[in-house]
């Protein structure tokens, strides 16, 4: 006899407890509006639970405990009561291990639900660091949920993210967990993954027996489920600006599927109970005066809406160049941060751009190293082999103009690179500024050193000189 199961997916919320600016795609280009926040998530979760009692699972793909100043400074602790209030059933992770995997493991008991990661082991062993899977029960159904943490954590994130842990691509682990759960007689196998949409599709093409993949990491706004082999896949945007809802008819697998991609805009009221929690939160209150201090203004909308450019990143990069006096600056292609409408800026907006507030560093690179680094980044962003993709957008830079052919194979995409009005000389030395080793890995260049000023302070210094007003957005030019 068929039974019904409802699933709410949240992914990549990046600790956005409050409503915030985000980008919408429109016929006229990017439009910034205020969206999201956990009180709106709570409203929808309550609505589904009331409409479908005893039937709703709430699953979280991770990137949950990092992304705001409050989350970073409390090592994710500030998020715990809100996630408890939502009643999450299980999660996996990526940026959540920024405070070490051991710290993330310590949060699991406080959260009261499992953090699943079948592809993470204690360093040098085959002993799982986190629970690999879980069997959850709803409406008379047994649901096997397999967790896959981001497999780039050990590859290109700071070392602390993987301290004491080894990460794999997750393919063999997913296959093994499917077999284990099927032997235990589950009615449904759900993959809760933070590999990213392209990698999840590649995995589903190789691993049989998964009924549904809840995908995270790449911030795809999937408006209707896709079927890959025998499995359905969705991903539900990011930044607590949207969520996904599924209602499944289950009888020896999924017999039918109904999906809603829900934009959490002003038509969705904010849950009063969670609003009261936010108002009474002493931890959040301790940051309020500092973060809500005005620091300047911008005459352009600030966002990270495009793979090729982000005005948020240009503000950061131009501030780094101003603070260091160096002509070229690099930052990582982060996807979080949302958007800020042009007008007055507060310190909270600047921490939205870079919540870690890293120290600005400088280095000396040859022209060839710059070209090679850009070429490597294009491959890690747009590789035709999904498991070679490292996540994030294209590397952000200022002071360069880069002509490239995206369709070319690795090693042949970069066509020409100019620094100022001169073409980059492969043999010449160039002084550059950067933030984090994701922007300029230490395998490139020499004389890496801190310059004595952090990112947020540099942006504040730039804004004190007047409103930000960058008009040239053509750093990367596809040809």
What's the quick description here?
This protein has 479 residues and is α/β, with parallel strands linked by helices. The chain contains 13 helices and 28 strands.
Notes on the structure:
This protein is α/β, with parallel strands linked by helices and 479 residues long. It has 2 domains: 3-280, Purple Acid Phosphatase, chain A, domain 2 (4-Layer Sandwich); 292-478, 5'-nucleotidase,  domain 2 (Alpha-Beta Complex). 27% of the residues lie in helices and 30% in strands. It is built from 13 helices and 28 strands. Helix 10 packs across helix 13 (455-464). The chain is globular. It starts with a strand and ends with a strand.
What layout of secondary structure does this protein have?
Layout: E1 3-10, E2 20-26, E3 29-35, H1 38-51, E4 56-60, H2 69-73, H3 80-86, E5 90-91, H4 101-111, E6 120-122, E7 133-138, E8 141-148, H5 153-156, E9 165-167, H6 171-183, E10 188-193, H7 197-204, E11 212-215, E12 226-228, E13 231-234, E14 242-250, E15 254-263, H8 272-280, H9 282-291, E16 294-298, E17 302-303, H10 311-324, E18 328-331, E19 339-340, E20 343-346, H11 347-353, E21 359-366, H12 367-382, E22 396-398, E23 400-404, E24 414-419, E25 422-423, E26 429-435, E27 446-454, H13 455-464, E28 476-478
Parallel strand pairs: 1-4, 4-5, 8-10, 10-11, 11-13, 18-26, 23-28
Antiparallel strand pairs: 1-14, 2-3, 6-9, 7-8, 12-13, 14-15, 16-20, 17-19, 18-22, 21-26, 21-27, 23-24, 24-25
């Amino acid at each position: 006899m068929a039974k019904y199961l409802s699933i709410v997916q949240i992914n990549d919320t990046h600790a956005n407890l409050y409503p915030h600016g985000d980008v919408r795609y429109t016929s006229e280009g990017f439009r910034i509006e205020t969206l999201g926040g956990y009180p709106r998530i709570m409203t929808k979760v309550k609505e589904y639970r009331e409409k479908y009692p005893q039937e709703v699972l709430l699953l979280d793909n991770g990137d949950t405990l990092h992304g705001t100043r409050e989350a970073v400074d409390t090592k994710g602790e500030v998020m715990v009561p809100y996630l408890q209030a939502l009643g999450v059933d299980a999660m996996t992770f990526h940026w959540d291990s920024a405070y070490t995997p051991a710290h993330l493991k310590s949060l699991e008991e406080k959260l009261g639900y499992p953090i699943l990661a079948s592809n993470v082991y204690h360093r040098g062993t085959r002993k799982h660091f986190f629970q690999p899977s879980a069997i959850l029960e709803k409406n008379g159904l047994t649901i096997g949920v397999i967790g896959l943490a981001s497999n780039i954590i050990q590859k290109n994130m700071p070392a602390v993210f993987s301290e004491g842990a080894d990460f794999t691509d997750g393919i063999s682990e997913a296959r093994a967990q499917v077999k284990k759960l099927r032997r235990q007689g589950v009615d449904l196998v759900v993959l809760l993954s933070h590999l990213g949409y392209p990698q999840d599709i590649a995995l589903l093409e190789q691993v049989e027996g998964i009924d549904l993949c809840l995908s995270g990491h790449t911030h795809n706004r999937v408006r209707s489920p896709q079927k890959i082999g025998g499995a359905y896949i969705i991903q539900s945007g990011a930044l607590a600006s949207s969520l996904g809802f599924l209602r499944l008819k289950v009888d020896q697998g999924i017999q039918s599927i109904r999906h809603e991609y829900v934009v959490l805009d002003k038509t969705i009221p904010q849950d009063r109970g969670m609003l009261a929690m936010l108002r009474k939160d002493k931890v959040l209150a301790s940051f309020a005066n500092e973060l809500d201090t005005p620091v300047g203004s911008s005459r352009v909308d600030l966002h990270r809406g495009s793979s090729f450019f982000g005005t948020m990143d240009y503000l950061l990069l131009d501030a780094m160049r101003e603070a260091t006096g160096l002509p070229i600056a690099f930052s990582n292609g982060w996807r979080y941060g949302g958007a800020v409408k042009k007008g007055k800026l507060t310190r909270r907006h600047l921490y939205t751009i870079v919540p870690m507030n890293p120290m600005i560093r400088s280095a000396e690179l040859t022209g060839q190293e710059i070209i090679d680094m850009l070429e490597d980044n294009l491959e890690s962003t747009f590789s035709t082999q999904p498991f070679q993709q490292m996540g994030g957008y294209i590397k952000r830079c200022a002071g360069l103009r880069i002509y490239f052919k995206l369709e070319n194979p690795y090693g042949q995409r970069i066509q020409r690179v100019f620094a100022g009005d001169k073409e980059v000389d492969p043999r010449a030395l160039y002084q550059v500024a950067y933030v984090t080793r994701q922007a300029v890995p230490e395998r490139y260049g020499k004389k890496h050193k801190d310059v004595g000023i952090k990112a947020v302070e540099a942006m504040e210094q730039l804004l004190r000189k007047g409103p930000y007003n960058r008009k040239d957005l053509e750093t990367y030019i596809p040809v």
